[in-house]
Write a structure and sequence with these properties.
disordered N terminus; about 70% helix; about 0% strand; single chain; mainly alpha
């Protein structure tokens, strides 16, 4: 076993004592290495006095000047306890002035730089409210564009909320809303992923059920856009089957039943068309018989089932005749 020389032990002891002394040393405004900028110069000499001065402006509703003084405090004394309050007030003022994205980013600076020094859930709540506001807001200042919705602007913000607080009580809702936005903007593939994330990460949340149906709905839409894509229809069918089994009393059960029937009919039609191809185009009696029998076994209640049974009877005779030749 390697031994540390006594001189080395002495050095290590000195480093440890220095670190302890540094850690226990009280905060000093004079030792704070903040930047004293020309354009963000504090009006007072200490962070305590500066915060009181900025708060006075804030209380008199002089928001722009107050914001400037809060930012000057954070810039000049970034490690002070007052900097945390000033950063929070800076973000709050931006929100009051309807600068929502900048406000979100200012709250994010708290998360990134002052973890453990503020009410974390309060900041998450404010970030979530901003994301919701942006998601639901209509944009466009020109008359021709007024009322145009752009909810996708909230996607990155909602994702950040989930990242900041994956176990926060509203994280499942934020994750689910990402799927809703992607579905609304017709990004169906991405929406299915977001909905699946909600289902997997928050299976006991009320939003797991909503996301399960949202995923089934998106897969059904994808199938509708490519009606001959049997793989897409099968995936939608599988998701709907899981949803119907897992949530038999769901508020979405009527809608799910409609989608289930639509997918069932599409799968049945695709399978029936395969059988008719062997029957009418290829004129392969045995292949057609097998296809019709598989069809009837799976799709017992389709609109083509009785016709398939009739063809099975006729083809059974034809196959026997072929074998006897």
């Amino acid at each position: 076993m390697n031994r540390i020389p006594r001189a080395g032990l002495a050095v290590l002891g000195l480093v440890a004592l220095t670190a302890t002394a540094t850690a226990s040393k009280p905060y000093s405004a004079e030792s704070d290495s903040g930047k004293k900028g020309v354009f963000l110069r504090p009006s007072e000499d200490t962070p305590h006095e500066q915060l009181a001065y900025a708060d006075g402006l804030y209380q008199r509703n002089r928001l722009k000047r107050a914001d400037r003084q809060y930012r000057a405090l954070v810039r000049s004394w970034p490690r002070s306890p007052e900097a945390v309050t000033a950063q929070y007030k800076h973000a709050t003022i931006l929100a009051k002035r309807d600068k929502l994205v900048k406000a979100f980013e200012a709250y994010q600076d708290l998360v990134d730089n002052y973890t453990g020094r503020f009410q974390y859930e309060d900041v998450l709540e404010r970030q979530f409210e901003i994301a919701e506001e942006i998601m639901n807001r209509r944009v466009g200042k020109l008359l021709i564009l007024r009322g145009f919705e752009a909810p996708e602007r909230a996607l990155d913000l909602l994702e950040k909320v989930v990242t900041n607080g994956p176990r926060w009580e509203k994280a499942p809702e934020a994750q689910h809303l990402m799927g809703e936005i992607q579905e609304y903007t017709k990004q169906y593939e991405l929406a299915t992923v977001s909905y699946m994330e909600t289902m997997l990460r928050y299976p006991r949340s009320p939003f797991a059920e909503k996301s399960a149906f949202g995923r089934a709905r998106c897969l059904s839409t994808i199938s509708n856009e490519s009606p001959t894509d049997n793989e897409a229809a099968e995936e939608a069918w599988y998701q709907l089957s899981i949803f119907n089994t897992t949530y038999p009393e769901s508020e979405y059960r009527d809608q799910a039943s409609i989608l289930t029937r639509q997918i069932y009919d599409r799968l049945a039609l695709n399978a029936y068309q395969v059988a008719t191809f062997y029957d009418r185009q290829a004129r392969n009696h045995k292949a057609a018989l097998n296809a019709y029998e598989s069809f009837v076994q799976r799709f017992r209640t389709s609109k083509w089932t009785e016709e398939a049974k009739t063809r099975i009877e006729a083809l059974s005779k034809a196959v026997k005749d072929d074998e006897n030749k």
